[in-house]
Design goal:
Organism: Geodia barretti
Strand order of the largest sheet: 1-2-3-4
CATH class of one domain: Mainly Beta
Protein name: Protein Mut11
InterPro entries: WD40/YVTN_repeat-like_dom_sf (IPR015943), WD40_repeat_CS (IPR019775), WD40_repeat_dom_sf (IPR036322), WD40_rpt (IPR001680)
Shape: elongated
Structural class: mainly beta
Number of helices: 6
CATH architecture of one domain: 7 Propeller
Low-confidence stretches: 265-285, 294-299, 352-364, 519-529, 537-544
Number of strands: 43
Pfam family, one: WD40
Keywords: Repeat, WD repeat
Helix content: 10-25%
Mean pLDDT: 82
Largest sheet: 4 strands, antiparallel
């Protein structure tokens, strides 16, 4: 081992408290309040390392610098973070320019940056480290579920406060020391949720989630409080979201007034399960204002939702059978588009070359269109009232025969309805959705519904363990039953179409996950002349289908298909389990403390999002 003597550089005038090396640069901080960035020029022949001061901050802090760390950003740039006796954490660029100042409640004694979670850990007189997002400087301790509850209960008094922090990249561990001469070790868990939020409503949990993949990506949630909430991620902070409730009161009042004028009944009531909702007699005879308020009660919330990308429509169904459709405010969109056209025309007069701009202009127009629709906001366009019971099953269908987009809804009243989403018109209904040859029980309901675009079939599940597959047509009278997926012994909570593998997937309260595999490879209807031949092959495949089954160990409440890999993601009690297309278990993610109620996959962010009866919404890394 060779020990080199580093040449003295006139930088600090006092004790150097902290030192960090990144590349060919040396960062140092001392009790003289200075932050010095030095650069290694070259090795001299006598073993000394000549240094050159790149930047020197004489008053980096109001007191002595106590700790220093250097971190790499996702784009390769460096962050320099310093802590001081002045109770402040300062974030600097690699060349020493100040970016953020974080005020703490006590002296900052330790710092470290964890690249896997892109979070800065700060020790400042608290039993557990504080967590900050470095780009925004926001405190994300309450949203980043990194520190488990076990460590939180072990270190609760003043004497056990964390003093020093050190990240070990080889083992993905953070080591901390306390005043009581103790050592704490946190190990990175790749299956842990990366972000955790509490339900927007303190009185209820989130029951349904959906999202739009257009930029900016929006998440929508609904629950038993009768609110639908829009979530939008902050630009500089991946942990924080802005939330906004969507209104539907005025359109609902108009719909109820119209029904009263026509002498109709609308939704609210019918068949239902005891303990989850009230009967129709409670709503009968109520003035419309009281009906609206009743919808916002404990048993009048939203239970299912989906987003129709082609029309920019959000659809959400409620416990009383009412379906709401939100879309862009057309008047606001027209005004914004007119302003955009005027701005574009003014810009075009200054352009002299147009040929190379066509592709870039097209991208800009598409991006501007997305921005306009987001700025315009969402307004309730349609209130669909025909079901006489809770509606838990929704599926959107884009029909190639007439170019229209339809909505299939299934309710506890065992009715399947077909709606034209552009107009909000009820196209037709199938009242006897469950064939007479299948035995029913007192609480028979439709629980879930999914559509297969290549097969042009839809499947819906029931509470007695059955799944029925029908051929889609514009008229519900032509919905021919082509197959029954029989095998579950308890309620089928979810049916999904796996577009990657071309199979139906079901999850049930009997703790099993089933994959309904066909013996022929699924084809896509790309040409009009091949459609009839394909339909014949698909019918044969349905008849020749065979079943794969795996036990999840706990009742399955929700199932989702990873649209990128085709993996099957299931909520089994309070655990999130990921299976491959052969139903082999790949990963188990833990964090929720109660049953998972809803689950979505956001491909562009490579995330799964879950909501649970524990009142939290968690974000997880997708398995790839």
């Amino acid at each position: 081992m060779y020990i080199y003597t580093v040449a003295w550089v006139p930088g600090h005038t006092g004790i150097v408290r902290c030192l960090n090396i990144a590349g060919n640069k040396i960062y140092s901080g001392g009790y003289d309040k200075k932050l010095v960035v030095q650069e290694v020029v070259s090795l001299s022949g006598d073993g000394e390392i000549p240094l050159k001061i790149v930047r020197e901050r004489d008053a980096a802090h109001d007191a002595g610098v106590t700790c220093l760390t250097v971190a790499k950003d996702t784009d390769g740039s460096s962050w320099v973070v310093s802590g001081s006796f002045d109770k402040k954490v300062k974030l600097w660029t690699g060349d020493g320019k100040l970016v953020h100042i974080i005020q703490c409640s006590d002296t900052v004694t330790g710092l470290c940056y964890v690249p896997q979670t892109m979070v800065l850990w700060v020790a400042a007189g608290t039993p557990l480290p504080l967590l900050y997002e470095p780009k925004s400087g926001d405190n994300v301790t309450d949203y980043a579920p990194i520190l488990n509850t076990t460590s939180a209960t072990l270190h609760t008094n003043r004497e056990s406060t964390v003093q020093l922090l050190k990240y070990i990249p080889e083992t993905s561990e953070v080591i901390g020391s306390t005043k009581l001469k103790g050592v704490i070790c946190w190990r990175y868990n790749p299956t842990c949720s990366v972000c955790c939020h509490h339900s927007p409503s303190t009185s209820s949990h989130v029951e349904t989630l959906t999202f739009t993949s257009k930029v900016p990506i929006l998440i929508f949630s609904g629950g038993f409080t009768g609110e639908v909430v829009k979530w939008e991620q902050l630009q500089l902070n991946s942990f924080l979201y802005s939330v906004d409730s969507l209104s539907y009161k005025e359109p609902l009042m108009k719909a109820i007034e119209s029904e009263e004028d026509d002498g109709g009944g609308g939704g609210g009531g019918g068949r239902g399960r005891a303990g989850k909702r009230r009967g129709s007699e409670e709503m009968a005879g109520m003035p419309r204002e009281r009906k609206i308020e009743a919808m916002k009660g404990e048993n009048r919330g939203f239970v299912s939702s989906l987003f129709v990308e082609s029309l920019d429509l959000l659809v959400a169904s409620s416990l009383d059978g009412t379906i709401f459709v939100w879309g862009n405010d057309k008047r606001t969109v027209e005004v914004l588009e007119e302003m955009q056209r005027n701005s574009a025309s003014e810009t075009s007069t200054t352009d002299t070359v147009a040929g190379d701009r066509e592709s870039s202009n097209h991208v800009q127009q598409e991006s501007s269109s997305n921005v306009i629709t987001r700025v315009a906001g969402f307004t309730c366009l349609h209130v669909l009232r025909s079901h006489t019971g809770c509606v838990e099953a929704l599926a959107a269908v884009e029909d190639w025969t007439d170019g229209r987009t339809y909505l299939i809804s299934g309710g506890w009243d065992l009715t399947l309805n077909l709606w034209d989403l552009s107009t909000g018109r009820l196209v037709g209904s199938l009242g006897e959705s469950v064939p007479d040859r299948y035995p029913s029980h007192p609480n028979l309901i439709i629980t879930s519904l999914a559509f297969s675009p290549p097969r042009r079939k839809f499947a819906y599940s029931t509470s007695d363990g059955q799944v029925f597959v029908r051929q889609f047509a514009v008229s519900p009278d032509d919905w021919v039953l082509v197959r029954t997926l029989d095998g579950h012994t308890a309620e089928v909570t979810q049916v999904c179409w796996n577009g990657v593998s071309g199979h139906w997937v079901t999850g049930s309260s009997d703790c099993t996950l089933r994959l309904w595999v066909g013996q022929k490879k699924e084809k896509k209807d790309k040409k009009e002349e091949e459609k009839e031949e394909m339909e014949k092959e698909e019918e044969e495949e349905e008849e020749e289908g065979e079943e794969m089954c795996v036990s999840a160990g706990d009742p399955i409440s929700v199932v989702c298909v990873d649209q990128t890999t085709g993996h099957i993601v299931a909520g089994a009690q309070n655990n999130l389990k990921v299976y491959n297309r052969d139903l082999e278990l790949l990963q188990v993610s833990r964090g929720h403390t109660d049953s998972i109620r809803t689950l979505i996959h956001i491909p562009d962010r490579k995330q799964y999002v879950t909501a649970s009866w524990d009142g939290t919404v968690r974000f997880w890394r997708a398995h790839h």
